[in-house]
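Reviewer comment 2.1 asked that we show a complete input and output for one of the modelled complexes. We chose the zinc ion case, as it is the one discussed in the main text.
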Amino acid sequence: MFWQKEIETLTADDLNKLQLERLRQTVARAALSPFYGDRLRQAGVNPDSLQTVADIRRIPFTTKDELRTNSRQMLTVPLSDIIRLHASSGTTGQATVIYYTRTDIELWADLVARSLYMTGMRPEDVFQNMMGYGLFTGGLGFHYGAERLGALTIPAGAGNSKRQVQLLQQFETTAIHIIPSYALVLLNTFAALNVDPRDLPLRLAYIGAEPYSEAIRRRIEEAYGLKAYNCYGLSEMNGPGVAFECLEQNGSHVWEDSFLLEVIDPETLEPAPPGVVGELVFTNLTRQGMPLLRYRSRDLASYDDRPCPCGRNSRRLSRIQGRTDDMIILKGVNIFPVQIDRVLMELPEVGSNYLVELRQEGATDQMIVKVEIKQEYFQEELTFLKGLQKRITDALKSELLLTPRVELVEHNSLPQTEGKAVRVVDYRQK
Ligand code: ADP
Ligand code: ZN
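Response of the prediction step:
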């Protein structure tokens, strides 16, 4: 089950040595860029002054805003050596841009191939990539990785649900890459076409790109009759293929030979111990064109450093709880959207989609949760629906510690996206 066995099974000690060596190389390379050249000089850091991996803490963090305004100044090579750029989806503001050399693209493809191989994808598989092709890294990133592995790769792109189902049938697709919220929405199209996804030869799904609960994974696995693996990545660190679940499905292995991970308390900026949620900070260890040092991702998760039964020693990330800037603050309570997801998706009557609205009503703020109900339950009597509404409200209340207003709506009635789901709309005046 190993694509690059030697690297994937390095002992903690050997990994540490490799990381230090690569960190020094990366710092030397980054210093060639105007941005990091200045920064490293000011911090008084050069490759030789890094005696241990922990010495990285002498280098200041790189923030998303710095990346937004300085990405060209972070290049270590002339533009003639750059062959591609990607941009983040811009979920939380202006998109960040990353430039890749040919070597960067190749190393990235290898990491994705390694991830796919780990979960059992083989050259015999037919892989349908239902992600946006374009500036978003989920499309081309997986595409190159699956081709590198040698699977027949169908560049289906995002959306166009009927066509997706046809392609799945026509080419006997065995593996898909799909945004989890879209995987649920696509079930409506299967139902409309009277096709049961479990009758297809599908056996693997890769789901990521947005926070989602374990309940959503289970729903996808059951409805499609396959194994679904979490994949995590961010365009600032190439894109997909930063951390990936193995067959154990017990957290996502970070490819620590390529990315140096720090987990920090976002307030104090001190390292967080294993099991404690903090902000993920990444340093590229192999990128050539545009290595980032200590990039603050704003993503929140914890890590587990115990060895995994799969034989890999790299640390495993918990599911992403959300981003520091996703947190809803309502009536003084802090809430992550994924908490709402977890509660709703555990309830069998709840359909594929929901929407959270934050509104100012008089002097107070109100959370309105619109929940799609499965067709068969929506036709039930009013007393049943009233009871269901109360059950959902109570379940949310005990998780969130405030009482939202729950509205039940018909299935397929809330806005859908082909890309990352928009689950929260804030109408409050800022
Ligand atoms: P944007 O930050 O604009 O959405 P990207 O397209 O680069 O830009 O997406 C990367 C982000 O998507 C990550 O920083 C993270 O917030 C989210 N993400 C990616 N994979 C996962 C995953 N498996 N679980 C939760 N969130 C994820
Ligand atoms: Zn493992």
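The radius of gyration is 22 Å. We note this here for comparison with the apo prediction described in Section 3.2.
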